[in-house]
Amino acid sequence: MSARQVSREERHAAGKSARAEAPLASHAAFDAAPDRDPVGLLLGQAVSRVPELIPIRHARMLVSPFTFYRGAALPMAADLARTPSSGLRVQLCGDAHLSNFGVYAAPDRRLVFDINDFDETLPGPFEWDVKRLAASFAIAGRDNGLTAAQRRRVVVGGVERYRTSMREFATMRLLDVWYARLDIEDTMRELADTMTTAGRKRTEKVLAKARTRDSMQALGKLTTVVDGRRRIISDPPTIVPVEELGLGLDVDTTQRWFDSLIADYARSLQSDRRHLFKQFDLTHVARKVVGVGSVGTRAWILLFDAGDGEEPLFLQAKEAQTSVLAEYCGQSEYDNQAQRVVAGQHLCQAASDIFLGWQRTVAPDGVTRDFYVRQLRDGKYSIPVETLPPGELTQYARFCGWTLARAHARSGDRIAIAAYLGKSDTFAQAVADFAEAYADQTERDHAALADAVTQGRAEVTEL
């Protein structure tokens, strides 16, 4: 016999009682620690990363307060640990800023909108993801030149969509929640009458571009033929073929290491996908600098072919380190950090890449590292939010709010969270206050990193 399921009434009561510990209005608070040192935290992350790539990370973070924010998940985790906690835990994305949502092709080849980055995923209080998402809109809104009133409408719109969606998910059957997803093409048809002509054209352009982003497109953009063999094009420092890295290994030893890496990874796939994958042979490898916060972690792009040179498969093997949330939310149940990422992604996403898997390997430098693997491009596309006018940015925030609520409803107690959030916009208004306060803090942190560069404490590489 299984343990007794807690009744809906008990779950609802638990959600409402959580307000005693963390009233909804209390989420407006942001109290910076007196000894707060965000630059020190960022520099501390460099210890486990590729040294020559750290200046690139700093340069990307210095472009704007928003790019700084993208790379500053660790400082924000430390800050969130000082805020009121609902105690209602979910599988957090861990880095739920607006650029970590986007379009990709589901296994049925339909374009869906979902969270697409889980490097920091870990169980924790649901509001941490909501606050990181809300603050990202406040900061991006400043970069876009939005007024304070416009920014607040965007943030409140997104958080309110989270609240109302969670309340809707609380009334649904669990299986219906599990199957729910945001199908972009269907959604765009539903919204067509409410969109401007310019907005429709922008959306159509985004979707058309997303449909072209696959391994064939990557083959044409990232490779060339050298002496009759397909090779990834060198474009240092962002893309460097493995033979140019000076790892101190001969070609055969390097090939054996990557063959071992791939063999271990294949065992993490379900059997039908493992059968499919075994029909591809590894032909070339390069290191690729990705993202902002991830810069410095080891990331490889791997070119495979099914045998005739015209059936490519591009995979990305990305190093997974301990989540920035671990110190504040507890260690993962998974010893393998890549498995942590993959498990969190499967739990939160409506549909995941068929080649998503993980492995652990002893790297050429003798250090054991965890890598997760996924397709490099499979309809993946992030919305260029810097081009969106206020109305469309609000709609985008609402998409993100629904998507985050769906992810949390799958992994957490949707009934308790819905009861906690209640029927008013109190939570949304409080989080909007927090978001503006954190946008102020991020501007100061961005300036602090610039000062650290001037003082020689941090290095940058010109982009």
Architecture overview:
- With 463 residues, the chain is α+β, with helices and mostly antiparallel strands.
- The protein folds into 2 domains: 8-208 and 384-454, no CATH class; 215-375, no CATH class.
- The chain has 18 helices and 13 strands.
- The radius of gyration is 22 Å and the shape is globular.
- The termini are far apart.
- 45% of the residues are buried.
Please outline what is shown here.
This protein has 463 residues and is an alpha+beta fold. 48% of the residues lie in helices and 15% in strands. It folds into 2 domains: 8-208 and 384-454, no CATH class; 215-375, no CATH class.
Low-pLDDT parts are none
Structural class: alpha+beta
Strands, total number: 13
Specify the overall morphology: globular
What's the end-to-end separation, in Å? 61 Å
Kindly give the count of domains: 2
Alpha carbon gyration radius = 22 Å
SS strand fraction = 5-15%
> How many DSSP H or I helices?
18
Average of pLDDT:
91
- Main beta sheet strand tally, sense and closure: 6 strands, antiparallel
Level of helix content?
40-55%
Question: Largest beta sheet: what is the strand line-up?
Answer: 8-9-10-11-13-12
